[in-house]
Amino acid sequence: MITHPVNERAPAQIGGARTLMLAQASARRAFTEMYRQLAGEIGGLALAFALSPDAPIPAARSQQFVAAAGQVATRYFVGSDGRSPFGTDGVTPLANYPRILNEALYTATKLPVVAQAKWLKRHLPEDIFAWMAGAKRKSLQESRVAEDLNDEIRKFYEKYRFWYVFHPNPLAQHEHSHRWVDPNGYTLSDRIWRAGTATRTKLDAMLTDAIRNGASASDLAKMVEAYLVPGRLGKRTNRPYGRDASYDGMRLARTEISRAHNYASYAASAVNPYVRGIDFKLSISHPRMDICDDKATIGMTGERLKDPYPVNAAVLAPIHPHCLCVNMPALIDDTAEITAQLREAIQESRRLNLEPHMNAADADAFTRMLFGLYLNF
Predict the structure, then answer these.
(1) Are residues 134 and 242 in the same domain?
(2) Is residue 142 part of a domain?
(3) Which of 44, 55, 105, 299 qualifies as a FRET site for 115, CA 20 to 30 Å off?
(4) CA distances (Å), 328 to each of 12, 53, 246, 269, 321, in order?
């Protein structure tokens, strides 16, 4: 790729760090409240198991208390079977954590799509926008079988294959968050269960240690809140259970939200005829050099580092846990030229009775299609 001077600014972009930040901030508030409620329940249990708020939990009841607290924590991550965050359909949440994550993933998916919809509405002629917004019947998952195409249609696809809005099978391999399997072979259900198990293990160890050291019930309640609620000072300790029981759940949420956001940005870009490529922008909170620096096309402060990736060879964030780098569309320079070419293509497509693939011009339908199963929250 061509390397640009570091002082060259990247062109105007759609969405990006701002929409990802909004999605992450909204989720953090919701999860913080969830952990606060969990801490309150466990604090209430401590008071119920002790003889008085200022008294420690009796040794004879300590194991029962720790087990009860662990069951409460588990219930926030999975359903009554102790293993499944979602119902048999794989998406209906059975506990607080997957419910909040579902909502966060939907928001993370919708924000970059809406940003593209607004750009399209603002920059496209009315007839082009109306044509794109009218594509309601064909989703990204649908494809034509090559043998079913007549020569004229096949030639049309070959002529306009660089525009994914006409592509016979754009992004057909897309799997929404609930079905995506990570490199370790874990589904989202597995990842949530593992985060819940890690949370319970840390909480069990912390409570056992506190009881052993004679903490009163009221002190236990305060310690649990400090240990569970994100943003609190945390319980400073050298013990194996660490100082932050919400770490695993919050890390998982941040990573999943980033993945949903960046794929939505990419998918909306791929079927936008006015996008020439996909950028990978370093997060402004990027703490140290890592693999992201090798992949980035735009630096932390907006300087262009490399040409954008071609749409069919884009590198999508996140590429490691906690990664807050973002994918953004790189726009073409001459919208008028593309509009003229697109009008010709539209005329041909109408003659051949071909419709465009669903795209960000209808932001709500495109978001729901990307997220999968048209869920209602």
Answers:
(1) no
(2) yes
(3) 299
(4) 10, 54, 30, 8, 20
